[in-house]
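Milestone M4 deliverable, item 7.
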Amino acid sequence: MSELKKYTKIGNIIFYVGLTLFAIGFALKNTDVPASYSNFSTPFIVAGFVFLIATNFFRKKRSIQKN
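Output delivered:
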């Protein structure tokens, strides 16, 4: 996987964890699994979405170039 260059290392980790949680929640929602597992889909989707939004707070500082 290519690294997202505009985020810090922690930001990248949070991004991939959030993406994984969102994908698991989405998969549980759209497949034929027992109801007990299907109930976990919404919290996984919400947690993944929160992680993806939190990634924006871990951007690298932009350096000012002097001419």
